[in-house]
Design goal:
- The two termini are about 35 Å apart.
- The protein has 20 helices and 15 strands.
- Helix 9 crosses helix 11 and helix 19 packs antiparallel against helix 20.
- It is an alpha/beta fold.
- This is Sugar ABC transporter substrate-binding protein.
- Keywords: Signal.
- It holds the Pfam family SBP_bac_1.
């Protein structure tokens, strides 16, 4: 099946007619560990490629393992890796590209950011390579190519795992308070005072990281107004943020803040430290809206929280009277690897060989599954079913494959300029320092930029 290439909508919403891969911004948690980098591969030998990626565990270990296997098998075509935390990476890659000092392999989320790379001539068109290597293309979820495709051409190798945003909850805490998981937005608002009365924060939130707040608006926009609501923003329609449904969603999130729905001091908590996850698995918070990549971290760090069956999860519930399909989800449609246009021919060949032999190789696919992720590799259903995390993996696969619409994370769907303004204003919205109307006005000013 050919990837969708004809509409800008592709980068925002991927139809789920076939098994699909998707997913936040997978987000870093560990400190930067530079081991290479620089212009055309960091000043390395002509054939030595460089590769920057996020330092999240357990994801970092999988990425590093693939690089190590490649280097062992290719002594004359090596890759030097450098890891960064999420926010540090975004700043570093932007600066490096501007200075002509980017790594050979550029890790990213596709969508709006990739579009800016393409417009600046900073990444190679990989369409001819995929056309010459159909087997590589055919082993990936077809819809994963949506956010890799700009104006009908493929500029990135889809990689890694499907990662929708889901609503996690602590079953022990729910049993302690004697309540059931929410089935609607109304239920969420009714649960808030019950958990607060028990001395438990209703929701954990690493609000200092900003993009964690964004996930709430992504779902509320969808559930209230349907995917067309943010679609109007993405399509640069004038004053799209002032749509009544948008203002309703913005008001609802402030209602939740005002009701003390989030952990006290959430604006000082970081997601990069996994502190938000710890609040959930230690029972200090009852629920957490987050990406599926956090499952592996909670399994690793949360004692028996995951292995003991105390972790619950569900798709975000509907909003009463809303237009969004309850099956819809949001997240990132895979992760994406591009090749820096200024890399040497030797480095580019090394990168392509890495894409062909190690990205979602059988070894890597097994590692993703072993850490509770659903890789965007065709034919992995039997491996998912036989995994120790089969129930979780099949849930994630079901959310992604059954969603009528899979919306890409806003900070990746928009240009970096608009995304930065968005994150700043979302932070202010959650801090109650601006009104929904002020938020809309500020965001309308950067539509299409």
């Amino acid at each position: 099946m050919e990837p969708r290439t004809t509409s800008r909508r592709t980068f925002l919403s991927l139809a789920m007619g076939v098994p699909v891969g998707a997913a936040l911004a997978a987000c870093g948690s560990s400190g930067p560990t530079p081991t290479g980098g620089g212009a055309s591969g960091g000043g390395a030998a002509a054939g030595k490629a460089t590769y920057w990626y996020l330092s999240t565990q357990p994801q970092e270990g999988i990425r590093t393992g693939s690089v190590d296997r490649f280097n062992k098998a290719n002594p004359n075509a090596q890759i030097a890796a450098t890891t960064f935390q999420n926010d540090a990476y975004k700043t570093k890659i932007k600066t490096a590209l501007g200075a002509g000092q980017a790594p050979t392999i550029i890790w990213g989320w596709g969508g709006g950011t990739l579009r800016t790379y393409v417009q600046a001539g900073q990444v190679d068109d990989l369409t001819p390579w995929f056309d010459q290597n159909p087997a590589i293309k055919d082993r990936l979820f077809p819809s994963s190519f949506g956010a890799a495709t700009i104006d009908g051409k493929i500029y990135a190798m889809p990689a890694e795992a499907v990662q929708p945003i889901v609503l996690f909850y602590n079953k022990k805490v729910f049993d302690q308070v004697g309540v059931q998981p929410p089935e609607s937005w109304g239920d969420i608002m009714e649960l808030v005072p019950k958990f607060n009365a028990a001395g438990i924060a209703p929701f954990s939130l690493g609000g200092q990281s900003r993009w964690t707040n964004m996930m709430w608006l992504e779902f509320l926009f969808d559930r209230v107004g349907g995917p067309e609501l943010f679609g109007a923003v993405f399509d640069a329609q004038k004053d799209a943020w002032s749509n009544p449904a948008a203002l309703d969603a913005l008001t609802k999130v402030q209602d939740l803040v005002k009701a003390d729905g989030f952990i006290k001091g959430f604006s000082s908590i970081t997601a990069d430290s996994n502190a938000d996850q710890a609040l959930l698995y230690t029972g200090k918070a009852a629920m957490m809206l987050h990406g599926t990549w956090t499952y592996g971290s909670m399994a690793l760090d949360g004692g028996d929280f995951v292995s003991g069956g105390h972790l619950g999860y569900m798709n975000f519930p509907p909003v009463e009277g809303g237009k969004g399909d309850p099956s819809n989800t949001v997240g990132n449609p895979g992760q994406y690897l591009s090749i820096y246009s200024k890399a040497t021919p030797e480095q580019k060949e090394t990168a392509k060989k890495f894409f062909a032999t190690q990205v979602l190789s059988p070894d890597e696919v097994k590692q993703w599954i072993d850490t509770g992720s659903v890789p965007i590799a065709m034919g992995s259903e039997s491996a998912l079913a036989s995994s120790k995390d089969a129930e979780w993996l099949q849930f994630v696969y079901g959310v992604a494959s059954n969603a009528k619409t899979f919306g890409q994370s806003w900070d990746q769907a928009l240009s970096p300029t608009a995304a930065e303004t968005l994150l700043d204003n979302i932070s202010q919205l959650f801090q109650l320092s601006i009104t929904p109307e002020e938020f809309a006005a500020n965001m309308n000013a950067v539509i299409g930029k």
